[in-house]
Amino acid sequence: MDPTNLKKGPSPHYSLYQREVFRAGGEEGRLPTFSVHAEEMPEETKATLTNRGYFYANSNAGLGWTDRANRDAFFRWRIIPRMLVDTTTRDLTTTIFGHKIPAPIMFAPIGINKLYTPLGELVPAKIAGELGIPYALSTASSNSIESVAAANDEGAAVKNESNSVHQYSGPNGGNAQSPRFFQLYMGHDDEITISLLERAWKSGFDVCMLTVDTWQLGWRPTDIKIANYVFYYPGAVGNEVGESDPVFMRKHGDELEKDSGKWIDSSVWHGKAHTWAKMPWLIKEASPLLAWKRISGGRPFVIKGIQSVEDALKAYEVGLEMLPEIAEAVGDKMTILFDSGVRTGSDVFKAIALGAHAVMVGRLYVWGMSHQGEHGCRHVMKSLLADLDITMTVGGFRSITQDVYRNKKVLRYNPSGVAPGPDEHARL
């Protein structure tokens, strides 16, 4: 694509990143150090990570059939392109919880990022800020809430200095840092929960995302093989949010010195499920303390992990196989964020067409920073944006919200076949 022949549009020309990579190789002999092919990246991380890091990034619950089913579901939906449409400029922007963002893509909450790069969550938080894309921080972070917020602000400052043409607005209008979500694993000590929420709000996290499908860690055979539970090892990472919390440390600091698993066992994957009866307390009530709606002045509360239509009528977050049914059931009454198995620009396109407002990306950015830290994370996310932009361009779609969102006419369902895995790709 000739950049001198392009006019400015609602979105940056993300597709030019492909040209940038090609020219760096052709003119300077500077090649990428790792593949952004989604089937090749995880295997290549074996050369850059310890066994613990590799298996924690790539393990699945059980035999991994759900992970494979998510990829198969994307495979069965095919995009139907339209020809002779002027897509010289595209509009990938959308609005999530009052934030106008440059593309319907978010950084999913993933814990203990120091397994993948020494700076941990500071890396994706900074890149999210640079790109203006929402970032979600895990309660199991290996950095404090406050330090991650500062890294996100740093990235946003870089974006604002280098790209003043494409500014995106916050819920109160005007320019703002990229939206920040705080993903909450809610233990059974309400005082600690309130402390975490107050810290998140003070640090600029203005959406609370409660995970409800992981009261305890799933059964992960590949991790069990090497006893891969980093929280129990000396000098463990993953306790940083607890260690930096004044309420938790006042109550359990002495215990944490003796048992490095105290934070994760009591406040994160505690094994004692909450019920719907607890939700009004967390969202609205909290006498005599303050819960999220009061702390934040009414900012959004999201439930993460919902996969049934019945539960979707009470919550906001879905899984892929159920996405069309849930989108049909709740329509635009709720904001639907899809999180599972997103690897490519066409995956993003398909999820939006099936009714998601935005998608969350996790393993992609983990693989990227596992290779080259900040540069690797940036390379993977800019590649995903370029892939989505090119899909829109060659597919004949100008606007992600007007031409794609909840438009199943742009897709065709193929009920047979499964997506080829890495071995099959190698033989093609």
Structural class: alpha/beta
The proportion of residues forming helix, as a percent range, comes to 40-55%
Average predicted local confidence, pLDDT? 86
Quickly give the CATH architecture: Alpha-Beta Barrel
Unreliable stretches: 172-176
Number of continuous helical runs = 19
Radius of gyration: 21 Å
CATH-derived topology: TIM Barrel
Main sheet: which strands, in order across?
A: 4-11-10-9
GO molecular function: FMN binding; glutamate synthase activity
InterPro entries: Aldolase_TIM (IPR013785), Alpha-hydoxy_acid_DH_FMN (IPR012133), FMN-dep_DH (IPR000262), FMN_HAD (IPR037396), Glu_synthdom (IPR002932)
Family: Belongs to the glutamate synthase family. Belongs to the FMN-dependent alpha-hydroxy acid dehydrogenase family.
Binding site for FMN: 109-111, 138, 183, 211, 304, 339-343, 362-363
